[in-house]
Design brief:
By secondary structure, the chain is of the alpha+beta class. The protein has a domain at 178-246. It contains 12 helices and 14 strands. The strands form 7 sheets. Strands 1-2 form a two-stranded antiparallel sheet. It has a two-stranded antiparallel sheet with strand order 3-4. It starts with a helix and ends in a 12-residue tail after the last strand. Mean pLDDT is 78; it is low at 1-7 and 26-63.
Length: 251
């Protein structure tokens, strides 16, 4: 009875880590550029002028993304919505909701809500509009310390690209995974690569299952058998008899 909550923590940790990896961002230090110079030269008079603590720009009238206030903030503006350098924090920060909604973090992972100079998850609507909802079934906002989009409904899993491509049509904790051989057999991975049977990863009962090629019959009906001659099951993949898949040689 004590193991179920622990499994949930593991699943949620996987969601947080995967969200950070998708964004190419790991921890606040990733948004801390080198400090800019404290002085600048006037282009008209040549006089030395102080640099303000932050160079915030008004949101564009056309609703487009705000331009970063400095070159140092350029990558963080596009990815995280942190478009303005704040000297007191030595960091690039978000100034308003417009920064967040124009960012890759919003588009891909649903981190669209402005709060405390950063962009965070805030609602199911943000999650449902994200690419990870479409691709992975992560369509529900996880409140509190989680603050990422997660899967909570089987119908979201079944509507995802991961279900169509990889057979990840069932719910396990807060993520979509393969849970039935029928889902594997109906997937693009089965038709193209022979991943038609349900296979458990590892030997522990709480480890995930996935679709894989576990028999020659899985492979013989696939396109990789027809086109490349990979017609025998080998280490959960389709390969030529007694060897590695044709497309993996020479790599």
């Amino acid at each position: 009875m004590k193991k179920a909550p622990q499994m949930s923590v593991v699943r949620r940790s996987q969601l947080i880590v995967s969200t950070l990896l998708v964004l190419g961002w790991w921890g606040p230090s990733a948004c801390q550029p080198d400090p800019p110079p404290t002085q600048r030269q006037s282009p008209s008079t040549g006089a030395t002028l102080p640099v303000s603590s932050h160079a915030s720009q008004p949101a564009p009238e056309d609703g487009g993304p705000r331009k970063p206030s400095s070159r140092r903030c350029r990558p963080f503006c596009k990815i995280r919505g942190h478009c303005t350098y704040e000297a007191s924090l030595n960091a690039c920060i978000a100034r308003d909701a417009a920064d967040c909604r124009a960012s890759r973090a919003c588009r891909v992972t649903g981190l669209c809500t402005y709060q405390g100079h950063t962009c965070m998850g805030g609602s199911d609507d943000d999650c449902r509009a994200s690419e990870r909802c479409r691709d992975e079934g992560l369509c529900t906002f996880g409140p509190g310390a989680i603050n990422v989009c997660m899967a909570t409904k089987v119908e979201d899993c079944k509507a995802s690209t991961a279900c169509k491509d990889q057979g990840h049509c069932g719910l396990d904790g807060e993520i979509c995974v393969a849970v039935a051989t029928a889902d594997c057999a109906a997937s693009r991975g089965c038709r193209e690569a022979g991943h038609c049977s349900l296979k458990r990863i590892g030997r522990l009962p709480n480890q995930k299952t996935r679709c894989a090629a576990v028999s020659d019959a899985d492979c013989k009906a696939s396109l990789t058998c027809k086109n490349e001659g990979n017609c025998a099951a080998f280490e959960n993949r389709c390969a030529k008899a007694g060897g590695e898949p044709e497309d993996s040689k020479g790599r």
